[in-house]
Amino acid sequence: MISVEEALDRILARVAPLGDERVELPQALHRVLFEPVYASRDIPPWPNSSMDGYALASVDTREASGDRPVRLTVAGSVPAGKVAERPLHRSEAFRIFTGAPLPEGADAVIPQEDVRREGDTVLVARPLRPGDFVRPRGEDMRAGDLLLDRGRVVGPPEVGVLATVGRRQVRVVRRPVVGILSTGDEVVDLGGVIGPGQIPNSNTYALMAQVTEAGGEPVNLGVARDRLEDIEEHLRWGLGCDLLLSSAGVSVGDHDFVKAALERLGAEQHLWLVNMRPGKPITFATIPSTSKGSVPVWGLPGNPVSAMVTFELFVRPALRRIAGHTRLQRPTIRARAAAPIANPGSRRGYLRVSLSREGHEHLARLTGDQGSGILRSMVAADGLAVVPGDTTVPAGAELDVIVLRDF
Ligand code: AMP
Ligand code: MG
User: Which of 195, 305, 316, 385 sits a CA distance of 20 to 30 A from 279?
Assistant: First the structure.
């Protein structure tokens, strides 16, 4: 039996980022840039007003005060999207609006609420400094600046920057296509009738959702019966995918054929038993492929919670690496046990907890019974508390929690 860390190391050593594709800008969200992005021009391209007000030459206001306001003639108007028709002369002001370029000869703006307008003139009752209420040319970016590195994850601000530099399309790392197979004679797929001894297929759909959330593109490979040939055939269908996930049939029971099917496909198996609960039996293998070199395959446990937790620990980081990410792990926080959290088994526990905030602290509370078939304990979970074997964390003590979602 190997540790969780050792298992993940063995997996990550065998996966690498995919090549690139070109996507329309709105589709680039959450993708990883395959190219660096540079500024094509200065932004803003010219000094412009940050307020609705009056553009003026600051020298004209040097003597201005409340007692002796300076009177300037309003000689023009510059709305956003237009440029002044002529330069500003001494003792003149131009009406100006937010975002409009400063007229030549002006170096400051006074907000409209700070002046008194009298006919064609304005009274300015305080001195302005050059640059007041002016956004200088290039304050955001200068032509040639490196704005976004290759490998950067595109979030909303990156989308804004890409639009600013005129990128309708962006080169990003291709999204991994993930084939998902369920195995088991008792497993009935969506739409089927659950007969005696049978159970509904939840793993395929929970795993598809996890894949999508992690940035992959799931492909449903259906349900294989507990027969060597059937599992082998289903896996073979999936060899065009970038990676494969199968669930159940991975233990040592008389009806567990996933490992044997992998062997028949010439796979090299890199791990099997991992020191954790839920989910001890898990296999990771690489199947040789003429077109792709090799296809990584995970044989996940069948119990719905075990499948989801082992996905979190062993598939998600690898999937993210394949999708080009460098931050592979979920955030971990320190939380206080709201009530005792017991891990009675000898294996390291990944226990489902809900999380809440109390002042500056986080509180973790078990979501209830931790059986690996209790999918609803996952529904209630915000995170996985990591508890060493044979350990009870007393109420009020701190522990590590892997955060699975916003709480
Ligand atoms: P196994 O690993 O084949 O021994 O399966 C372990 C448990 O997971 C059994 O109780 C199965 O019925 C259950 N199981 C297997 N596959 C699925 C699935 N696709 N959806 C829900 N439960 C499953
Ligand atoms: Mg089975």
Answer: 195
Q: Are 188 and 194 in contact (CB under 8 A)?
A: yes
Ligand 1 proximity of 164 Cβ (cutoff 6 Å): no
Distance 310 CA to ligand 2 centre (A): 17
- The per-residue pLDDT for range 300-322, each reduced to its tens digit, is 999 999 999 999 999 999 999 99
- Residues 115 and 53 sit within 8 Å (Cβ to Cβ): yes
Could you tell me the pTM of the whole model? 0.92
- For ligand 1, the distance from its centroid to the CA atom of residue 226, given in whole angstroms, is 11
Give CA–CA dist 88/393, Å, rounded: 74
Cα 302 to ligand 1 centroid, rounded to whole Å = 4
Tell me: the pLDDT tens digits for 144-201?
999 999 999 999 999 999 999 999 999 999 999 999 999 999 999 999 999 999 999 9
* 303 within 8 A of 334, measured Cβ to Cβ: no
How many Cα atoms sit within 13 Å of 360 on the Cβ side?
A: 0
